[in-house]
Amino acid sequence: MTILRRTALAVVLGSTAAIAAGSATAQDAVEFWTMTYGDQLNWKGEVEALIDGFTEETGIEVRHEIVPWGSAFQTYLTVSQGGAAPDCADMYWLHSFSAIGGDQHGPMPLNEYRDEYFPTLEEDFYAGALQDVLWQDDFYGIPWRGDIRAFIYRTDFAEEAGIDGPPQTWDEIVEDAKALTVRDENGNVERWGFAYGTATNVVSWLLPYYWQAGGTMMTDDGQTATIDNEAMRTALTFMRDLMWEHQVVNPDSLEAGYDPQPLFVNGQLAMVGSAEQAWGVELDRDYPQLEGQWAMATSPAGPENSDSFSGAGYFGVLRGSDHVEECVQLIEYMSRDENMLRLAQAAGTVSTKPEVMASEFWSDRPWKIVVGEALQDAHTSQHPAPAWSAIATPEPGGILYDLMYDVIVLQEDMDASIAEAQERMQAELDRS
Amino acid sequence: MNEKNIFCYLMVAPALLVTALLGIYPMLASMVMSFQSYDLLAGQRDTIEWVGFENYRTILADDRFLQTISQTVIFTILAVGIVVSMGLFLAQVVNAKFRGRAVVRTLIFSPWFVPPVVASAIWMWLLQTERSPINAVLRDLGWTSGNIRFLTDPETWGPFSIPMMSVVAVRVWNGLPFVIIFLLAGLQSIPKSLYEAADMDGAGILQKFRHVTLPMLRPVLMVLLALLFMNGFGHFEMNYIMTQGGPRNLTNVLAVWSYQEGFAFFRFDNAAAASGIILAMTSVICAIYLRLQYKDDLR
């Protein structure tokens, strides 16, 4: 009986010590969150291999956790309001989350570490990508991934229709889309000629056309809305006419559930105006049978330029962390060219460093070369106002969504709709 | 307090604790928030102000919100009315003894095995204008020449629209097994002697249904209707996933509106006020139910 008691005591003490030791190790480790990109297992494996390399080099332990994209927004919204936060993380929408967190929670400025750890920041990164880590003159981290949009089209259908290469201008988009739209004897569309963009965010379809028409959303200080202008009328007229006058765009495009990729793959859609580079990765991986039947191209030019939608994600530190310096070291390690390349390869996203984009990986497929070229026309989707994400929310009730829906789908009075959107947008900017 | 009472309290304590922590507390916190100015983008968390009924006044002055309230009521009445009517009929069918009853029961109950989120995704595919197999079948049969825009047609007939009816149909499909099981339990508790007595009095099927089945099901139906209405007023997932409230706000309901206001526009105060309206609506149903039950108890 005594032996049994001693054994039980030893087991209890041993377990307690092990749990305490484990807990201490866990507390000492840097907590690092990322979303997932591409194949989740591959991504997790690659990030953790990079972390192992970092730990080997510095002796700093890092605990990696995955935040699913489906709950990423709610997670960082909670973090920015004082919820459980990691030490450092893969983040986005810096301006909104910084404003929500104020000086207590959310993203943490890293100005004091900038010169020591990132002395050649401006030379190393695309200027557009850096806009996503700067807010009110503060530096918040390293942009590590880009989301550049390019034109994509079915080359087999273009060839059938006698079209030689992708459209170069808006007028050519109309011309080609008409030639590529196919209807049955009852008038039902069997193949749409054109889609404004991919399913990710409906509002992101408007932005490049507006920029290409010479418009800007707001003043540089983020204080004044500037959408009631000729550029907006030009962009919306172009989009509306594609849907109703030329009838080459699906009228359901702006509704929930619209997904152009299956249509494109099944031959029910010929051209997409603004597709993420991830389409290239996905078509290569999931539809090898379509090899040679599609191609990417840089954005056709609007009246003023060929700007392409570009987003970015960054590695940053969260306020309240006890491991700020360790996190900065981790971010510096991740931002090295060879590691950025590994991240880009695993994620299938473009890199924010020209050096990485010049690597062989980004030139081994024709679409990758186009993506690299599209970066020259990249126009950041980040705007200098915390309310931007609310303004651009792609749901009914969102200011830009409602503007697009009223003008493009419902064909309501354009001037009145734009004036109303301008007023609502100004109210949102004033609110924040 | 005797030992038996203590045991009873101990047994319900965990459930009460969980309900209080995860149900009552968030509800009260949300109600408090609905009387405060709580705008995430305004950077005023340290100086949250009491604004009385200002948030309620703001949302009730919004035409889109008023449209959403009326649609929530219409959605709920339609869904509850149809599901209970069908449930009453099908519960009789699965209660009857006939060859193949097990197969029929399995088929009828199978939608219950599909979580609402998954059901929404499946039906979104089935109802997608160009890829819809339903449209393909209708065209092949020659019943339609063009595609029906089940979830996207913006045409309306008064407060009704095709997208609204489509979402109601999916909600009915998914909720029907629950209603049938509820009613089946009620049917099986009705003494056979009542039907035998009705037979001796020469009652037909409809008369037996009206004078025996319905009165005997009344307590079950009351609970069922109360649950369905309360659940209906707060319904979220199918409307959000299938249409996000569109097209033209035609399928929006209060819970979706509240979610969009909070998580898309960062106005948690307005979102909490919308939740307050939902609470008020469900409270009315609750009060009606309690009153009817009280009257029944007095009989």
UniProtKB/TrEMBL annotation, chain B:
BP term (GO), one: transmembrane transport
Cellular compartments annotated: Cell membrane
Question: Which PROSITE patterns does the protein's record reference?
Answer: ABC_TM1
Annotated family:
Belongs to the binding-protein-dependent transport system permease family.
Its name, as the record gives it, is Carbohydrate ABC transporter membrane protein 1, CUT1 family
Membrane topology, record value: Multi-pass membrane protein
Q: Which Pfam families match?
A: BPD_transp_1
Species the sequence originates in: Wenxinia marina DSM 24838
What main location does UniProt list?
membrane
User: Can the keyword Transmembrane helix be found in this entry's annotation?
Assistant: yes
This entry carries the following GO cellular component terms, namely: plasma membrane
Instruction: Name the keywords, alphabetized.
Output: Cell membrane, Membrane, Transmembrane, Transmembrane helix, Transport
Question: Membrane-spanning regions, if any?
Answer: 7-28, 73-94, 106-126, 160-185, 216-236, 271-290
Q: Which residues form the ABC transmembrane type-1 domain?
A: 69-289
